[in-house]
Amino acid sequence: MIRPHVVDASTTWTAIASVTMKRQEDRAGASSTLSGGAMGDAINAKDWTGHALGTIEKWPLSLRTALGICLGFPAPSCIVWGERRSQLYNDAYSQVSGIRHADALGVDFAHTWVHAWSAMHACFERAARGEPARLESQQVSFERDGGSEPAAVMFSFVPVADDSGGIGGVLVTLLESGSAELRDELRRSKAALEQHGHVISHDFRAPLRMLEQMSKILVADHAEHLPPRATNLLNHVASGASKLASRAEVLTRFDVLSEHPLHRQQVDVTAMTGKIIAELSAAAPDRQVEVVVEELPEVQADFELLRLVWHNLLANAFKFTRPVAQPRIAVSGKRQGHHIVYSIKDNGVGFDPKYARRLFGLFQRMHTEDEFEGLGMGLAVARRLVERHGGTIWAEAEKGQGAEFRFTLPA
């Protein structure tokens, strides 16, 4: 029996690092060659024309960076990238029995593990939403010393950030039971990735803000001397720098929330949501939103963090019901076994359910900025905080038919 087990959210990796890769060449754009054993050579030699990933020189830096880490990792590992789950892997992974490695590069990861995909699927989808997961005590075989050698392994599924800060793919690693060296290597790689993520979120903000301000100053002080095209380009530079700086600030806040210690106390959830709804209503006095709140079960939780969860979910409901003539939001909750299930349901614009797995990733948006404001952070924060409390969160919707967000907390 394959049993999914989710690891603590604090082990999330931020796949923005440069390990075993030619970082300087990537930055300069001089070379797109990957280094890393026989599989690195095979990836370089493969004709990627017409593939969903495109040719190597067009691969995003985040993919090439994560793949460089994967190729240098001693344990069997693969990067599974994009909606089509294209797999790229290292030499150790190529020793897994039953995989036709001559044809396996770039194919759907699910097709490679078709016999176990039904059980892997839940863990993979969780990682694709930004939360690491693992499967314990799985039996696989490796081609070693001219024969097939069975082994018990743990499958680790770790989210990999794309260039925009969302989730671009998943790093899948097979760790043999009792392999202390490989587990130590995994921890070291994780620490390196987290350090680079910290640099991205903290050290990039100042130069980006400077770029934004300098562009605005040029336009303001020299507008009469600049041709319209130059003015337009400088405005685009300022806008782009502002967005990137805002995302860096979001990553910093996200890191702080992820490390915030939990101070559990008994929380009157009905009173909490009532105050939040009053605040949101006061912020939009020209709107008439019908909000129905049932009596909600109390819960042991960190007051401030739980309040942020409710605020983000309710603010979303208020926002996405704006185009509706008679907006309505229903809030409910009930005990189910050892958990409490809370629900926020609205009759707003909804979203296409095929994009549901992306919904809780950082900077993931289901609508354009012209339609609705926001950075795509609120749901990612809600997911992280709910799961830190030991709960889960999910959404159901149809485009144009509203949405319902549910989350659980231990009773």
- Number of H- or I-type helical stretches: 12
- N-to-C series of helices and strands: EHHHEEHHHEEEHHHEHEEHEEHEE
Distance between the termini: 28 Å
Average predicted local confidence, pLDDT: 76
Question: Rg, please?
Answer: 24 Å
Tell how many strands the DSSP assignment holds.
13
Question: What is the general shape?
Answer: globular
Q: Ranges with pLDDT <50 over ≥5 residues?
A: 1-31
Query: Please, what is the oligomeric state?
Result: single chain
For the largest beta sheet, what order do the strands appear in spatially? Answer: 1-4-5-6-2-3
Main sheet: strands, sense, barrel:
6 strands, antiparallel
Helix content range: 40-55%
Which class do the helix and strand fractions yield? alpha+beta
Query: What share of residues are in beta strands?
Result: 15-25%
Descriptive account of the structure:
The chain has 411 residues and is of the alpha+beta class. Helices cover 40% and strands 22% of the residues. The chain has twelve helices and 13 strands. The strands form three sheets. A six-stranded antiparallel β-sheet has the order 1-4-5-6-2-3, with helices on both faces. Strands 8-10-11-13-12 form a five-stranded mixed β-sheet. Strand 12 and strand 13 form a beta hairpin. The radius of gyration is 24 Å and the shape is globular. The N terminus is likely disordered.
Short note summarizing the structure:
The protein has twelve helices and 13 strands.
